[in-house]
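User: Please go through the entry that follows and flag anything odd:
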Amino acid sequence: MLGAAVEKILFKHKGIERLYEWQEECLKKHEEHSSRNLVYSVPTSGGKTLVAEILMLNEVLYAKRDCIFIVPFVSIVQEKVSSLSALALSLGFLVEEYAGSRGAYPPTKRRKKNSIYVCTIEKGSGLVNSLIEENRLKDEIGLVVIDELHLIGEPRRGALLENICVKLKKLQLKMVGMSATIGNLKDLAKFLDAELYTHDFRPGSLKEFVKIQNELFSVVHTSAEPEIEFLRCSRVESNKDIMAIDPDGLGALVREAVPKNSCLVFCQSKKNCENVAKLIVETIVLAGEEHIHRAHKESEKKSLLESIKLETNGSICPVLERTIRFGIAHHHSGLTSPERKLIEEAYSVGTINCICCTSTLAAGVNLPAQRVILRAPYVGSSFISKSMYKQMIGRAGRAGLAEKGESFLICKPIEAYLVRELIAKPVEVCDSQLKGEDLKTFILSCFFLKLISCRQSLDLTIETTFIHLCIGKESLSKMVSEALDDLFQLKVLYEGIKGAITMTNFGTAIAKANISCETGKYLFDELREAQKKLVLVGDLHLLYLITPHAIAESIRPVEEVVSSVYSSLTPKELYVASCLGLTEVVIARLMMGRSPPKQTPTRVLEKFFTCLVLYQLWKGNSLLTVANRFRVDRGVVHNLLAQTTSYASSVIRFCDSIESLWPFAKLLSVFPDRLSYCCSADLLPLMELPAVKLGRAKQLYRAGFKTVLSIAKADPHQLKNCILHLPLKQATQLINVAKLMVRTKFESLQEEAELYRLNQLDPEDEMFI
C-alpha cells in the first residue's frame, strides 16, 4: 500500500518485520471499499494503531492531504507526536500537536508539506470547526482517525466526539474509527456509514484467573461463553504477619512477578492506590526480600527520585519516596503530569516494576505488563463494567514485551456470583450522549458553521446522528424542539422570515469560543458586571474572569482553609473579593456553617476560592506548596492550570466576537502563555517540547541546551548522560521532536518569505514566477 521504500522506513522505526495477517486483511478490505469509512475492532495490544498510521501515511505522502488523529488524553497526544516525529523526519511530512494550550485555530496553511494533526477530543473539535469556518476542511483534510471510538458513549466527551463525526459526515470527509471494546459495533458502523472489520487477534496468550481468598479459578473461553473452572488452591501464606495485613494474598501475586517481570495493579480509588503500594512494600519487607528489590536497578531508582524532586521543588510525595526504592509506584490523577510522566518512563525501562493505578491507566498510555491484578471488582463505588474489565486485563501481554500475559481478579466470596456474571456477559453497548446542554451546543455550532440554516435542514442533520439510532424518533424530535426553543429564549438564535434561522452576536461569540450555552451565559453576565467595577490593581480580578467554573465545582472550599486564606489577603485583594460580593460577613456565615446570602451565589464563592489557588501559582509559589495550603491533590492543581489555560483562550475568542467586550480581549491576551508553564521566560522554548516539564527544562538549561535548536543538534547519549533518568529511547524521541520543530519553523518562515516576495511583484512580473 505504501511502497517498499516507505514500508522499510516504517518497519525500521516501529521495530517490526512484517504486518500481522489481520492488519493486511483489514487494509486490503479498506482498499477495496476506499470510498467508505472504516470502523475496526481488535483486542487491546493487537496492533490497531499501526493500521491507522499506515492509512495516514498513505494520505500525506501520496494523496498529499493532511490528516487529523484524535486521541483521548494529552499524554497520548504527546506520546504519538514523539513516536511519529522520526517517521516525519525520514519521509518529509509534519506532525503538529493540539493539546492543552498547543495548536492554532485555524492551523497554518502550508503549500509544500502535509501535516498530521494529533489532537485531544476537545482540541480536535476546535480544529475541525476552525477549518470549516475558513472553508478549508474539504480541500485540505483527507482523513480523520478516531482512537478509542467507544468513548462516544462517555458523558461530555462522547457528545463532543459525536458532534465532530456528524459534521465530518455532512461534509463527506473520510473517517477511520478504532476501538477494542464496543458492544454495539454494528450501530457505530451504521452511524459512520462505515465498513466494519473485527478480529479476535492477540499477539500473545492471555490467561485469566479469579482469586477468592485461597482458592484460584481459571477462566476458560469456550465457543459458547466463558466459564469459571476451579483450578487449585493458591499458595497459602505461611508468614502470619503478612497474612494479618494481606489476607487476600495480593503481595504474593505481585512478588511472583517482580522484579524480573512487570505488574500493573488496578485499584478502586486514588487513596487505595497509595495504600496498596505501601502494602506491597510491607509484604516484601516481612517476606525478607527487601535486599532483592532494593538492589534491582538501585542507581536508576535514585536518579528517578532526584528527577521527581526537581519537578516538585524538592517536595516529593512521602509514599513515592519510600515505595520507589522497592520498584513500586502509584499512578493516579492526584499526581502531577510530570510525576506521572517520569513514572511511566521508569516503568517502560524496568526501573519501576509495579504500578498501582486507577482505571484511567487502562485507556491511557501504552504500558503493558506481564501480570495484571484487579485489586477488587470495582471502579470507585461502582461494580466494574465488562468493557473496563476487558481494557484492564488487555494490558497483560504485548508483542515484543511480556507476550505471555496473565490477569488476576481478586474478589470476596460474597462477590463471586457478580464476578461470574461479569465474565460471562457480553461487552456493554454505548449510547449517545448528545442531549441536554451538549445538544444545544451542537445545534448552535452547526448554525454558526452554516451547515444548517432552518428547521428542515436541522431535522435532516439530526437524522444522521448517533442519538437518532439510539432513541425513538418521537422522543428525539421533542428533545430537539425543546433545545431549539431554549436557544431562541437565550437569544443566541432568532427565526426570521420564511423560517430562516440566524445567529445573534451572542450566539456567534459562544460558538467561536467553543463553549456551552450555559457557560457562555454565565461568562457574559460576569464580563458585563466586571465592566462596571473592574479592578486593575493587580491581576486577581482578571484571573477570576478566566477561571473555569467547571473545575471549580470539584475543588470544594474547606471552611477553615477559606477562613485562613481570606484572612491573609492584602487590602487590594480584599477589595477584589468585596467587588464580587465576598465580604467578611459572608465568610463569617460560612464559618458558622450557614449558607451565603442570596446575593452572593455559592458559584461565586467556589470560583473565587479556585481563583486564589491559581493566584498563588501566578505569584510563583510551587505547585506542591499551593496544593498543601488549599488541601487539594497536586494533580487537581496541575489539571486546574491546564484547563484555565485552555479556557482563557476561549474567553479571549468570546470577547473578540462582541464589540463592547473588546478591551477584555486585550487585557487577557497575555494570560494563556504565562499560565501554560508558570516558569521563567528563559525556559519557555524548552517547555514547548512534549516530553519536557519544568524540572527537565531546568536540567537541560543548566547543561547548556537552552534552545530547541541546541537539542536538535544533540547526540542521544550526550542528552541521556546529562539529564537524570532520561531513557535512551526518550532521549532519541526528544531530539527527533526538536529536529521536526526546527524544520517546521524554518519551512514556515521560508513560505512566508516566498509569499511576501510574490506579493511584492508587479502584475507584469507574474510571467517570471
About this structure: The domain at 437-503 is CATH 1.10.10 (Arc Repressor Mutant, subunit A). The chain has five domains: 4-198, 206-424, 437-503, 517-677, 694-760. The first strand starts at residue 37 and ends at 41. The chain has 38 helices and 19 strands.
